[in-house]
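Morning run. Coffee first, then this:
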Amino acid sequence: MLTIALLLLVAATPVNSFDGPDSLPQITLSEALERAARVDPDYVSATRQIADAAWSRRAAITAFLVPSLNTQLSATRYSSESFNIGTGAPSSQIVDVRLNGQLNLFAGLSKFNELTRANAEMDGARANEQRARFATALMTETDYYDVIAQRELSRVAMERVRRAEEQFTIARARVIAGAAVQTDSLQLLLEVQQAQVALLRQNARLKVAQFQLARRIGAADAVDASESEVLTTSPLPLTVQQAVDEATSSSPEALQARASQVASEARVRSLRGSYFPSVDVFGSVSAFDESFFPTATKRSSIGITVSLPIWNNAAREISLSRATSERDVRRALKTDVERALRRDVVQAYEAHQAATAAAELETQSVIVALENLRVQEQRYQAGATTIIDLITAQVSLSEAEAELVQARFTTRLALSGLEAILGRRLF
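And here it is:
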């Protein structure tokens, strides 16, 4: 009788209904990717590297035709008069202005090699920008689809609460009617409470994921993924060998490693050019006077300089040795990057295949769990099974639904990882 009174007291106390988290501003995946690119430090740095490489290439091109220029204006006041070359007479103040220019006519093949190096650095900067863009996209999609996955898991948890509350109501009525033992209602009450606690924890994980997405896109407060975005699985449009070949030939990481090697080789050739004579033409225009702007006397000069470096305390040899070591390192790094890409592509590809198969299996598991729960509900109502079997069927369905969400999430992450390696979208 005491147990029945307790159940009636519990029945009179409404079981809290757990809703989802408060509504938040929603953002589409394309919007999230665009906003993340503007605030991600690595991507901003990569775009600036392109601007720096562009100036290096401009300088290498203009070195062929445009002389280096500098101008100088000086005014000097003396305590006693000195001869002023401008006026041809003693003066206490001398003002002169100069414009100097110099153009290298020949320096071995250094200028051509510098242009090759600058072009390689530009190619490397562009490849690095593409790599950084897809790395940012990978992190953004990870956070974005994590929000979707956590939201789906919250719905699974809410469905578990709903089923438990329905079964608790039915079991309580059967206990009062004498069709079931008192412990049935107590077992279902425990399941309701466990489901509610699981929902609280899941909603907390969802909130954390929403704040992480906000951080990724530079938002001040939590944001939610668009309801139109769902976790789906699709077969890959290329074979694993095609993916490996594409990654080792045209992926951003491969292009960057190749460009770095070309630049280091050009650097070595450029330093070897320092062993050849250098021919420079120079010119200067000067004006002298005792007041601004000097116009009293003007002079101009033009000449040619031929220089042959012989020995500079091994500074040239040290620079060449270091450049050669750097070139050998870049060669080894390029080969290692290609090997690493083969491994990474196979890993991402096989992870996607395994996750896709797991998602298909979990889809079947959900169907089986739904049918099993339906049968257990009918058998329990008919008194042909125990409450433990019914609760087990309910929990099994929730677990199968959660596993399906996780499998789809893993599939989407594997696809994003493969796209980040290849540097392009597959869909």
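The beta strands are 26-27, 68-84, 89-106, 224-225, 278-289, 297-307. Good start to the day.
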